[in-house]
Design goal:
The chain is an alpha/beta fold and 200 residues long. The protein has 2 domains: 1-30; 32-198, ABC-type transport auxiliary lipoprotein component (Rossmann fold), CATH 3.40.50. The chain has helices at residues 2-26, 43-56, 83-98, 125-133, 177-184; strands spanning 35-36, 66-70, 73-74, 80-81, 102-106, 113-115, 121-123, 138-146, 150-159, 165-174, 188-189, 195-198. A hairpin with a 3-residue loop joins strand 8 and strand 9 (150-159).
Length: 200
């Protein structure tokens, strides 16, 4: 009798455990966005997440059009960047190209923007002229800012003519030894304008 009860209890526990595992497998996965925490920075993964945010919320410009990408810069000084900013820009360029956009990168970002009296970045005449010359529909701008433990990324896709915000994206990355290395490497001001393009 005792053996029978023990067998019934054992079967009941096994059934409960199996149901719990089945339900956990059916639970919805966390949605993208929010804080991306990585020990080793996978910049192609970060670039893909940001590209998905930009394309899913995009107004106006669509796949197949040309975009100008400016180097992601330090929020506190638009004239400087680091290897972190340049590496992130390269990853974004790759991801957006895979999503069907023609991509033109420009390294001399600072001369394309001014700050208005509220501190917001606005396109200069040079930016609009460059977009017209490159037949680009929009310009992607990006900044990063630092906290003691994270890097906050903010991107805005602006219509090259009207400066209307077409889409935004953002992530907060946990700082790691590798990210801190990229943040401290290759700092400085921008040199002469350089363009590179990716076309389908």
């Amino acid at each position: 009798m005792k053996k029978t009860r023990m067998m019934i209890r054992g079967l009941g526990f096994a059934l409960f455990l199996g149901c719990a595992l089945l339900l956990s497998g059916c639970a919805p996965r966390a949605t993208t966005g929010g804080t991306a925490s990585v020990v080793t920075p996978d910049f192609f993964g970060v670039g893909e997440e940001l590209a998905l945010q930009l394309t899913s919320g995009m107004r106006g410009a669509g796949g197949g059009q040309r975009l100008i990408l400016t180097t992601v810069v330090d929020l506190d000084n638009l004239y400087t960047t680091t290897r972190f900013g340049r590496t992130l820009t390269e990853a974004l360029s790759t991801s957006l190209f895979r999503h069907g956009f023609g991509v033109v990168e420009i390294r001399k970002s600072a001369e394309l923007f001014i700050r208005d009296n509220r501190g917001e970045m606005m396109l200069t005449r040079d930016a609009k002229l460059l977009a017209k010359q490159q037949q680009a529909a929009a310009i992607l701008t990006g900044t990063y800012s630092l906290t003691p433990t994270t890097v906050i990324l903010n991107l805005r896709l602006l219509d090259a003519g009207s400066q209307q915000v077409l889409s935004v994206a953002g992530l907060e990355l946990q700082r790691s030894r590798n990210i801190n290395h990229l943040l401290s490497a290759g700092g400085g001001t921008f040199g002469d304008a350089q363009l590179s393009a990716k076309e389908r």
